Amino acid sequence: MRIPQRRVHRDVDESARSGTAFRRLPFRWLLFVVCALVVCLSTGLFLMARTAPQAHAATWTEVWGDEFNGPAGSPLDTSQWIYDIGTGYGTGEIETTTNSTANVSLDGNGHLAITPLRDANGNWTSGRIETVNDSFAAPPGGELEVTASLQQPNVSGNAALGYWPAFWMLGTPYRTDHNWPQDGEVDIMEDVNGLSSVFGTMHCGTYPGGPCNEPNGIGSGQRPCPGCQTGFHTYTVIIDRSVSPEQIRWYLDGNNYFTVSANQVDPTTWANAVDHAFYIIFDLAIGGGFPAAFGGGPTSATQPGVPMLIDYVRVYTANGSAVTPTATPTPSPTPTASGGSGSGFTQGVNAISSNQVQFWFQPSGWTAGYVILHYTIPGQAQQNVQMSYNSSAGQWQYTVSGVSSGQTITYSFTYQQNGLQYDTGTYTYTVGSSAATPTPTPTPSGGSGFSQGVNSVSSTQALFWFQPSGWTAGYVILHYTIPGQVQQNVQMSYNSSAGQWQYTAGGMSSGQTITYSFTYQQNGLQYDTSTYTWTHP
């Protein structure tokens, strides 16, 4: 979900240097230079533009990818991708993103096409998708590479006004705590208005301002991208935790054109934004603050129907403590924690010193894609932090400082198992005691703090709704399963006129019984509802 975070500035590139010194060279040196250039070209000097993995000394392992093969007009594989459906996203863009194959589909030639369309009333629709897998992380001491070959929309001039293609990532903690820009955003490729450019940007810290100058972020500014509208080019980002200070590097066709180092911000800001997992997003927006900064749009002259084409997207890791596995969603019951050991895991808290404690989470015979710790110290706001995996202990761990003897800390975990996300029960731990004791997670049903339901919209669609009773939800996530399909987990949108969180789902048939539940945030804490069923009429 995009918040007001896009660039409204550009850097000024160094202008071309004068050629007068070259013209004063003797003829024999000119001949030598020309011959050298011919030799370099014939021996493949420009192999630097090869596709990923490239420009590394390390050994890389592909951990995930999609080649977008399939018949023309086919939808996405929803075991791999989530459709974001909505409008606005906090950036001023005006399109409504859909799951229609008119906006997002395979083209039959090994590409994914994201196509913006305008109806007779001037309303725009387009596509925005994100990976189900949100475990893409640079292992401690290693590297993460995320790369895609794509063709920007082949449109320019007035016909391109308002076009805003993007290939980017959000930090996985954002899916649960919605703390932007603290959780980190890495924009791998953006361009606006068909300028044949590329922008690379990192977002972090606090909004507005902060150490990363939000909402602008730390960016490359506008860089030339010749031919990027007319052909496929490779856009890559590498998060490198094998160097000190750590780095994020941006590449266009294998050429490193921009780098951000950890010492450009404070250590906490960097760790919160970078040292965790990410998920990938592609979208083609229309309008908004970023296109407005470079000429505006859309206008009546803007041409609809010109897609962004994606040939492939791939994820690699190198070195470090572990290779990230490819997640395969297989729905299973949400584990319920009881005591120090739950259904499939154990957990606890160890005292390290008089003012430090270490939380730990240990899967029982399975591998977690990530683990997020939620904890509250009395008198302070809830903290949501990515835990680190200690391979020697076989545990996910996180150390908290600034606690005092006698304080009772409330905490819980969010973790990924087999590509799906689960929440544990809520626990309490008193500093100075020897063990943590559990507190059951609330599982309210309809009427206990909220009401909920499903309305039939059409023969294939239904509107799910969730309405808090006298309180404000920080967010609401809908989990639903259509018979014969994998569980979907989608962010609901707030309808202020109805006072409800709503989401319209499609692909249903009369007589099907849909199973669903909600995850919501109330007073800074996250809760799960009971499971409900609804039969489509």
Rg of Cα set: 25 Å
Structural class given helices, strands, pairing? Answer: mainly beta
Task: Work out the helix count.
Answer: 5
* Low-confidence sequence ranges: 1-58, 321-342, 435-448
- The portion of residues assigned to helices is under 10%
What fraction of residues sit in β-strands?
35-45%
Distance between the termini: 32 Å
* Average of per-residue pLDDT values: 81
Reported for the largest beta sheet, the result is: 8 strands, antiparallel
DSSP E strands, number? 39
Shape: globular
How would you describe the overall organization of this protein?
The chain has about 525 residues and is mostly beta strands. It is built from five helices and 39 strands. Strands 1, 5, 6, 10, 16, 17, 18 and 20 form an eight-stranded antiparallel beta sheet that branches. Strands 2, 9, 11, 12, 13, 14, 15 and 19 form an eight-stranded antiparallel beta sheet that branches. Strands 23, 24, 27, 28, 29 and 30 form a six-stranded antiparallel beta sheet that branches.
